[in-house]
Amino acid sequence: MTPATIPLSVQDLTVAWHRKPVIWDVQFDVAPGQLVGIIGPNGAGKSTLLKAIMDLVPRTSGRVEIFGGPWKQNRQRVGYVPQRESVDWDFPVSVLDVVTMGLYGRLGWFRPVRKQHREAAQRALERVGMGALAGRQISQLSGGQQQRTFLARALVQDADLYLMDEPFAAVDAATEQAIVEILREMRAAGKTAVVIHHDLHTVADYFDSVVLLNMRVVAQGATSDVFTRENLERTYGGRLTLLEEATEAMRRRERSL
Amino acid sequence: MNLLAQWDWYYDGMIMLAGVLCAVAASLPGNFLVLRRISLLGDAVSHAVLPGIAAAFLITHSRSGFAVLPGAVLAGLLTAVLTEWIRDTGKVDEGASMGVAFTTLFALGLVLIVQAADTVDLDPGCVLYGILEATPLETVTVGALEIPRVVLMLGGVVLINAVFIILFFKELLISSFDPGLATTEGFHARILHYLLMVLVAVTAVASFEAAGNILVVAMFIVPPATAMLLTTRLSRMILLSAAIAALSAVLGHVSALTVPALFGFRSTSTAGMMTLCAGLLFFVTALFSPQTGAIVTWARRQRLAWRILSEDLIALLFRLEERTPGQTVLPGTLSRGLLTSLMLTRIAIARQKLRGYVRTSDQGIQLTEAGRQAAAALVRSHRLWENYLVTEGIHVDGIHRQAETLEHFTDRALRDRLQTQGTLADIDPHGSPIPEETIGPSK
Q1: Is the pTM of this model over 0.90?
Q2: Domain A3-221 belongs to what topology?
């Protein structure tokens, strides 16, 4: 496989915040046409990992390649679905406005939104079963509808690699099913999705491969091989790891200087 | 007494125009400050431009807006940068770091301005409330027209702000709503943030000597906040905020002349009165806005409370009838059963009598046939809910209170679904029979 066909390659990625590492030496590759789950406890650095891939938070060290090139060069091929809670749902915009935002990147600076863009957004809304709600103000949406709106916005981006931050968090069963179906349609079209996921029961059902993350990569590979009780215990183990102890000592030392 | 005896169309018109332009200029970028939840950064920047202005005074010995502009814009940007830097390194929240950054810069400005006052004609008092009243005194000639310098300058700022928002509407929208997505799509949220800060600084500087600090700080926030109560679309919010800003300025100038005169005083500070009017418009909107207004919400809640009490009344009568058919009940018994005062109970009885649901006699109150049917539907809803909640795994002790609320919001269609998804039993978990459906099938 040439590097240009590998959607995402993360090498030795470390992100630290005030000297405290959030993710440490993370390394994994994602093969094309796969649904990849990122699994790990709260505070394991899952969101930070996605943000660091897209240069949204500064990296301390390491490299990220998107389709064989740096993020800046290939960012048009990446679609980002942030956590639902990351935006203000009282913002004075309609559902269609939010979905249309997925097209802004392709429009570029200064060019206004036109009819064809709104029509593309409308089609995406229909694909997630929200066609009738296009004109609604976003504060009137339920949690599941908010997530579907974000998904429609990702769809209009028409990216090749999707990075999704907990799209299944606190949604109703129907929405969860709708999201899974869309993900599978994406995979059938040769697209790749890296999805942060919390519900361990559905991992084996939804994802082809997984990355088990707790500050470092505990294990990664095909779900059937890697998603084992033993690996999960290592990922979710409550014990303070030696690494954490060491960094804590480092921080204390620095403060007392 | 003619309150507007001294009204002069040119003189007062120009003061009003300057006020309107200043208010509109500030309200335009203000929309994005409010939406990004950094409203106070407008306040901070407009204070922090002071050292820039003072430094420019000291260097150029000129009061002209164009001479002080670069210094002020730099100082404004410095506030934004410093705020971020203090937040990240000082480990304090945004508000505290803003407070540190702008008070320090403002104080530096005051120190400089007192120095400058020895060499340049400059009054620290002007900084606060400005001298809008002096607008017509200093004019420049443009073509055949003589226009006050302040009006020309503020007009220019309105134009700059309007053009900026039209050109960057899409970029401002996405970076305000979802900065992460904006950045990944190539619109660096931070660049837009600083561009917005430049606009805020330019607006603050231009408004400074004419309107002072108080008007511009208020107009950054108050008109957009008012507009936000009235609409759910960004473009409409921006237009509305500009209209509200202009209205406050006009109302402000007229009241500055008339209101003090009513009480026998001389006219008061125009900029102050304009700001006060903007604040009053906000409160009026907050109280009376059709969707979110406090009064409308209160009235709606009150109506709902009445409906629920009236429904509880007939449901109680129905339950008492179940025990002793054909009995009449005294209002006192009902008020004890409803846990409410006798007076409220009597009003509820009067309402239901008006609808023909109860009849009253000397012996007491009794359901009519129509009332019995309506009450049966309510009690049926209540008991169906209790059955359903039990199947949802909720303990029997907790179901009555929930059903008591839910029964008032349950129509025929929902009851049908509750019956099929519940236990299908014809008695509720407490052993009371579930009344037959009395209302025709829903459409």
Answers
A1: no
A2: Rossmann fold (3.40.50)
